[in-house]
Design brief:
The structure holds 2 protein chains of 2 kinds. By secondary structure, chain A is of the alpha+beta class. Chain A folds into 4 domains: 108 residues, Aldehyde Oxidoreductase, domain 4 (2-Layer Sandwich), CATH 3.30.365; 92 residues, Alpha-Beta Complex (Aldehyde Oxidoreductase, domain 3), CATH 3.90.1170; 326 residues, Aldehyde oxidase/xanthine dehydrogenase, molybdopterin binding domain (Aldehyde Oxidoreductase, domain 4), CATH 3.30.365; 145 residues, 2-Layer Sandwich (Aldehyde Oxidoreductase, domain 4), CATH 3.30.365. Helix content of chain A is 29%, strand content 25%. Chain A contains 18 helices and 28 strands. Chain A has a 7-stranded mixed beta sheet, with helices on both faces. In chain A, strands 7-15-14-13-8 form a 5-stranded mixed beta sheet. In chain A, helix 5 links the parallel strand 10 and strand 11. The termini of chain A are far apart. By secondary structure, chain B is α+β, with helices and mostly antiparallel strands. Chain B folds into 3 domains: 47 residues, Uridine Diphospho-n-acetylenolpyruvylglucosamine Reductase, domain 2 (2-Layer Sandwich); 115 residues, Uridine Diphospho-n-acetylenolpyruvylglucosamine Reductase, domain 3 (2-Layer Sandwich); 92 residues, CO dehydrogenase flavoprotein, C-terminal domain (Enolase-like, domain 1, 2-Layer Sandwich). In chain B, strands 4-5-10-6-7 form a 5-stranded antiparallel beta sheet. In chain B, strands 11-12-13-14 form a 4-stranded antiparallel beta sheet, with helices on both faces. The chains are: A alpha+beta, B alpha+beta. The structure holds flavin-adenine dinucleotide.
């Protein structure tokens, strides 16, 4: 029996739960003996000109090794393009938390004392806190660029007259708020220059990308840089590659020809690490009273924060996925990406797709409300039918496989939709203080968007018949070591516990893409699968020679890991024997797997929320989901991804929001103020099964890392609004905090 | 997020703690559970030169039946209050409220003395001891004195404790009216209260409704004047000037106070 599809518990956990992981800041290795500690001096203001930095007093403090500023950075390492990001601020700061100088100290805790002695003079400039301010362009962040707009795009239909034939058109501007990724492990980097080579230990999702960026920015040859990712305590997209602060630490080691290490504090993390989302969306939806939607326009203003890292790219993904699961021929989307004097924005679980789903699902609800039809019915009438795949959307995506109607039907049946509506009606009739709301979302998302870049894997059979996998995918909590070993066992019959998975070291794995966009299993896993089948083919040849039989007569007994003449155990060879027969070259395969196109996981979520109409507090009481990611290799891992994803989606709907005051000061720079979701705030999730394989990779798998977030956020938001819809509420922006909900109820009452 | 340098001293007895405080002068602070003081020090909002660690004064960690009253050592941790059988039967309001403080980690470190001495209007236990009309016992260079809860909280983070004075015990008489309620309104389960209400009989106190923990005087007067609980509750925000922050405007806090006082009174009556 194949191990694939079975509930194998994570082999990573015993170590993590007993002796614990080794994260960058835990590294106690000789290479880092005597490393100095780095502490950033960060801008306390959102927008200002730097008119002077006096670090003399700090430099005289015992234990201070150096205070580095932009003046220490070679001209060649300065950014050349108008909106490009420097390492340390040059002449101007553009967000609170922006690195201005770096203090190097002998001891761990001296940095902040020294930092207090560095006098930086700031001449305040007007802050640009909102996207509206950015578009006004009264103040430019980059005068040389002549604009605050970092990118624009359009997709699909643009003709406004397509709304002309609609019986009903609804338009509304909504907010997909800025949130913080909050990985348990904050950012940390250690770097050492020695013997003409820079070694960087980084908390990263992609060691190879980090290496390439370091080499490019520091003007080094790729071969002169080695990046190692030890255990990484969560990334959620915010640890893709290497960010500016970590790069600056690497530069400091290079600049001082020494060893430097840095681990940020939680407050630095909340204002210095990238944030996610941050879109103002205008949705316009039109259709007929029979429920059929014929036109939809999504207009996005993407907040990039102070430097356009990947903001414009995120908006382009939102644009691509604008019509979601619906067959809307008249769908168009456009975006403007703008810079503001706030923390930069980049990928965060879902990265552009949750924003698309949230917009279209909100639009569907508003449309349903306008024509007085059950929102579920409106959805049903507009879903892309199961027989339409592959399906090309108006905005240019080609969905591989799907059955959206069945996902929706499964969720409705699993949740008992009719009973829930009856309960809602009963409570409304009784005039209960605590009302119930039901939110349904249907979603499709794009995973492995860069399928053509693929992923690498090298598989080697060791002398003792065990296997070592060198994977380009980089794990930071997902369970790659477990899943990859399962794939090897399934293909080669080498038991999982004899498979070692190695990742995240550019010397061991020079070429790789790494982990983001729910790409690991379908590309990295498929690469492992491909390497394993190549090893099997080679092994067959070797075994045939050793046994002196024809290849065609050989079989691999996968239950025991033996090669033998079919049906003849007396000829059995172990993997060790076959590996020994491979000679000098060894028995291994080194591959890159690429897929012809991305995959499009889909599903449906139903959230049940209770709202206390006196206080405005909303509580998620049930969450039922179908998340169809094709074939499931390990349900335990897949469910783990769904749980975390749902939690983060629900969190954005109910709790989480990064806030700045009118001057651009962060108001959520501690975990007391930033309301990261915790277990007691969430119910047990009800996960339903659905498997619609893809054909674009041999495993039939799609990505599942972000699906939960994408489906959950709109369902929960919708449920809150639905709970108070009878009071006249039609919309509540996220997060639906008690105060927001209470205000919405009051407004609706006043309007009546 | 790294505190400024300080000198650390550890006291083995109450007497030693008082002595150390006398030696160290104005810039010394007692360190109990550290769960209010250390966050302030990390933000460098508090920069004490000397920390006198009283966290190990086991002699000051107890819940005792003294006949006429229950005596609670100032160093008793929230978790021990929450799980005390004596409190559960005699002063359930305090046991329950202590179980609502922060998260399990906080409750295993934080102490009732620290919570009261900190004088934070957003904290839970100050309102509880107001509703219980407790008596606080303090020891200082000049000896021991008793302070009524109603006189203890004097301003934002300001209490009646003199510099160097140590809070040692909290005394709670058996409540005349058994009905009680603690309403803590939060965004997340582990949060500080946006608004909170402690009620013991007709004594009602508010969390996070002004510069200090406070009695809901107008509500108490209304009840004394014979108004029904629902009507009395409508006075919950009278005379308050609650803070504004990212969680709530002042008006929202005042609304919440009225709703929560109404619920607290209803629950207290149902239990009484
Ligand atoms: C994450 C987190 C969540 C929290 N959530 C809540 C919550 O929901 N509700 C709530 O009420 N509190 C909450 N707290 C605060 C917690 O209850 C603290 O433990 C408590 O407020 C202070 O007690 P402590 O023993 O830690 O005091 P410390 O922090 O050690 O001291 C606080 C102050 O009191 C002084 N002090 C301490 N003991 C004495 C004494 N015996 N005599 C004189 N002065 C003294 C100290 O010098 C200091 O100024 C939270 C704290 C954290 C870190």
């Amino acid at each position: 029996m194949s191990i694939l599809g079975t509930r194998v518990v994570r082999t990573e956990d015993p170590r993590l739960l007993t002796v614990g992981g080794v994260y960058v800041d835990d590294l106690a290795i000789p290479e880092l003996d005597g490393a100095v500690r780095a502490t950033f001096i960060r801008s306390p203001v959102a927008h200002a000109a730097i008119t002077g930095i006096d670090a003399d007093a700090a430099r005289r403090l015992p234990g201070v090794v150096a205070v580095l500023t932009a003046a220490d950075i070679a001209e060649a390492m300065r950014p050349d393009k108008p909106m490009a990001e420097p390492l340390l601020a040059i002449d101007r700061v553009r967000y609170v938390g922006e690195p201005v100088a770096l203090v190097l100290t002998d001891g761990t805790c001296q940095g902040e004392d020294a930092a207090e002695l560095v006098a930086v003079e700031y001449e305040p400039l007007a802050p640009v806190v909102t996207v509206a301010d950015a578009l006004l362009a009264k103040t430019l962040l980059f005068p040389a660029a002549g604009t605050n707009i970092a990118g624009t795009g359009t997709a699909g239909r643009a003709d406004p007259d397509r709304f002309g034939g609609c019986e009903v058109v609804v338009e509304r501007t909504i907010v997909n708020q800025r949130v913080a990724p909050v990985p348990l492990e904050v950012r940390a980097t250690a770097a050492r220059w020695s013997d003409g080579r820079l070694t960087v230990w980084a908390s990263t999702q992609n060691a190879q990308l980090a290496r390439d960026t370091i080499a490019r920015r520091l003007g080094l040859d790729k071969s002169a840089v080695r990046v190692i990712a030890p255990d990484v305590g969560g990334g959620f997209g915010a640890k893709v590659g290497i960010d500016r602060d970590a790069l600056t630490v690497a530069w400091a080691a290079y600049h001082t020809r020494g060893s430097v290490r840095w681990a940020e504090t939680r407050s630095e993390n909340l204002s210095g690490m990238v944030h996610g989302r941050g879109q103002r969306q205008t949705i316009r939806i039109g259709g007929h009273r029979d429920g059929r939607v014929i036109a939809y326009q999504l207009s996005i203003v993407q907040d990039c924060g102070a430097y356009p890292r990947s903001g414009a790219f995120l908006a382009s993904l939102t644009q691509l996925m604008a019509s979601g699961v619906y067959d809307i021929p008249g769908c168009g989307a456009d975006y403007q990406a703008v810079v503001t004097t706030t923390t930069p924005i980049a990928a965060y679980r879902g990265a552009g797709r949750p924003e698309a789903t949230a917009a279209i699902e909100r639009a569907m609800d508003l449309f349903a409300g306008q024509i007085g039809m059950d929102p579920v019915e409106v959805r049903r009438r507009n879903l892309v039918p199961a027989q339409a795949f592959p399906y090309r959307t108006a905005t240019g995506a080609v969905y591989d496989t799907g059955d959206y109607a069945s996902a929706l039907a499964t969720v409705l049946a699993g949740a008992g939709y009719e009973d829930l509506r009856a309960e809602q009606a009963r409570r409304r009739e009784r005039g209960d203080v605590v009302c119930v709301g039901i939110g349904v979302s249907c979603y499709v998302e794009i995973t492995a968007a860069d399928a053509a870049s693929g992923e690498t894997a090298r598989l080697a059979i060791d002398g003792d018949g065990s296997a070592t996998v060198y994977t380009g995918s980089s794990a930071h909590g997902q369970g790659h070591a477990t899943a990859w070993a399962m794939l090897v066992q399934d293909e080669l019959g080498i038991p999982m516990e004899r498979v070692t998975v190695i990742h995240g070291d550019t010397d061991a794995i020079p070429e790789a893409v790494g982990t983001y966009g729910s790409r690991s299993l379908q590309l990295g896993g498929a690469a492992v699968h491909k390497a394993a089948s190549q090893v099997r083919d080679k092994a067959r040849q070797i075994a045939a020679q050793l046994i002196e039989a024809s290849e065609a007569d050989l079989e691999l007994d996968r239950d025991h890991g033996f090669w033998q003449v079919r049906g003849d155990p007396t000829t059995a060879l172990t993997w060790a024997q076959v590996a020994a027969g491979a000679g000098e070259d060894g028995l291994e395969a080194d591959v890159r797997f690429t897929a012809p196109q991305p995959t499009f996981p889909f599903g449906a979520h139903l959230a049940v929320v209770e709202v206390d109409t006196e206080t405005g507090k909303a509580r998620l009481v049930r969450h039922v989901t179908v998340d169809d990611a094709g074939v499931i290799v390990n349900p335990v891992l897949a469910e783990g991804q769904r749980h975390g994803g749902i939690a983060q989606g629900a969190a954005q709907a109910l709790l989480e929001e990064v806030r700045f005051d009118a001057d651009g000061n962060p108001q959520t720079a501690t975990l007391a103020d930033y309301a990261a979701v915790t277990a007691p705030d969430l119910p047990s999730f009800e996960l339903l099964d659905s498997v619609t394989p893809t054909t674009v990779n041999p495993l039939g798998v799609k990505g599942i890392g972000e699906a939960g977030t994408i489906g959950a956020m709109p369902a929960v938001q919708s449920a809150v609004i639905d709970a108070v819809a009878h009071l006249g509420v039609t919309h509540i922006d996220m997060p639906a905090t008690p105060q927001h909900v209470w205000a919405a109820i009051n407004e609706a009452r006043a309007a009546r | 997020m790294i505190p400024a340098p300080f000198t650390y001293r550890r006291a083995g007895t109450v007497a030693e703690a008082l002595e150390m405080a006398a030696e160290s002068g104005e810039d010394a602070k007692y360190l109990a559970g550290g769960h209010s003081l250390l966050p302030l020090m990390k933000l460098r909002l508090a920069v004490p030169e000397v920390l006198i660690d009283i966290g190990r004064l086991r002699e000051a960690a107890y819940v005792r039946d003294e006949g006429g009253h229950i005596a609670i050592g100032a160093l008793t941790r929230h978790h021990d209050l929450a799980t005390s059988g004596l409190l559960a039967s005699r002063v359930p309001l305090l046991a329950y409220a202590a179980g609502c403080v922060g998260d399990p980690q906080v409750r295993h470190r934080g102490t009732i003395g620290g919570s009261l001495a900190h004088g934070d209007p957003a904290a839970d236990l100050p309102a509880v001891i107001l509703a219980l009309d407790a008596t606080l016992v303090a020891q200082g260079p000049g000896g021991t004195r008793e302070i009524a809860a109603a006189d203890f909280f004097q301003g934002l983070y300001e209490t009646a404790l003199a510099p160097g004075e140590l809070l040692t015990e909290i005394r709670v008489k058996r409540p005349e009216s058994a009905g009680w309620s603690f309403q803590k309104f939060t965004k997340r389960a582990i949060d500080w209260a946006i608004v909170g209400v402690a009620a013991q009989g007709d004594r009602v106190a508010l969390v996070n409704m002004g510069m200090t923990p406070m009695r809901a005087v107008a509500v108490e007067q209304a009840l004394a004047a014979g108004l029904a609980p629902e009507q009395a509750a409508s006075h919950a925000a009278d005379g308050t000037s609650p803070p504004e922050d990212i969680n709530a405007t002042a008006a929202y806090r005042q609304h919440l106070a009225r709703v929560l006082v109404g619920r607290a009174l209803a629950q207290a009556r149902a239990r009484g």
